[in-house]
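Possible regression after last week's pipeline update?

I re-ran a chain I had predicted before the update to compare outputs. Posting the input and the new output here so someone can diff against the archived version. Not blocking, just want to make sure nothing changed silently.
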Amino acid sequence: MAVIYSILRMMAKLFVLVATVQIVHGKDLNLDNENEFLASVYIRTMVKPIMKFYFFNLTNPEEFLNGATPVLNEVGPFAYKAKLVKENVRWINDGLIEFIPKVVYRYYPKKSKSDDGKMNRQFDKITTINMPLISALNSMKNTGDIRAQRTIASFVEILGQKPYVTHTARDLLWGYDNQLLGLAKTINNAAVFPEDKVYPYDQFGYFIGKNDTSIGTMRVATGLDNSGFLAEVKEWKDPRDTNFNDHLGIWEEGSQCDKTRGSDGFVFPKNIKKNSRQMVFNRNFCRSLSFTYKKDITDKNGINGYRFVASSDNFNTVQNNPENSCFCTGGSESCNKYSGLYNISSCQYDAPVLVSWPHFFQADKALLNDVKGLKPDATKHECYYDISKNFGVALGARITTQINAKIDDYGDIEQVKGLKPMVFPIMWSSIETDGIKDSATIERFKKINV
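New output (post-update):
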């Protein structure tokens, strides 16, 4: 009996030893070590966020064509489970890993209910701006090639598309057919449509190419040496590139605007200070965003932290925030006339796309005067991270953004003669998480006073 007890005790010790050492993508991590434990949690991506989409339905399309103020009705949320994946994880050294960040979206009916209890379905119809048409007209307006201008104008007039479209929410997100998408191939002029600015998809959708698709490879610090904090973005490589860089090659060369800097949004520096400015790199924004302290918080598990919110400086005009001047790569035309907007055309195939916070939150009031139906509300639209005080772990987050189209005067093109220049709100999204739900990990967080 004593022999059996001795064997069982040895097996128990062996089990504890194995349990405290975990092989994470070829790397032995000692889970008794706080830094290595946090690295293992980060690499395994244990957060399970929900993405919510909201569309602004245009309720007076024909009047809008004749110069009337667009009357918009928010429809949503259309909710999706967002499974975060780190694919092809590779350890460069103790302090650096690389991986392909992906998001896999799956429709989530249970969370697709409006505040009034209405169920929003993917097949609900939405009327909004015809973005492929507006993009084609923008190319026509901006090219100095007279022959190309005439070709685009003829192509647009022959097709006779209206400036608005009606499609299902699913099609607007993930793709629908539009004949204008072949315009670049028809003109076949690199001066008008440079190779890196040609829209690469056969269909048009606001989130096409973002579901379980690689948008590039990231290198981040592991926090296991002195080269950087866990999840600090060091380099990025687009799918078409062969080398990693610490810059994007989109904004002013050598500027802070073009740098891949800050956290990837999952972990921040340790012992975070209230007076600090936290940076988060977001490739979909083609930039890093700054966050500042708002208040102390305690999450649902009793862990204390700070709420850092997106600063209004992010989308301020150059006059209000000179640091944003390096985003004006196309001269004064690419600089924002109004605060609260960010011209993202340079990394969206030169489409006239402007980003803002939802409902023009923190934006110039003049933008609200051009539309009816928007109501900015910090409790719904503010972008934030809740960050633990000691180890900088993201305890929760709500990352919001709104997509807008810049509408200009397009001259004598018949179907758009009545449109007035404005910033037209199309949709907004919010990816939300209240942190890790695994009970064992939460208990460990509490034990180490994360």
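Follow-up from reviewer: compared with the archived run. The radius of gyration is 24 Å. Marking as no regression found.
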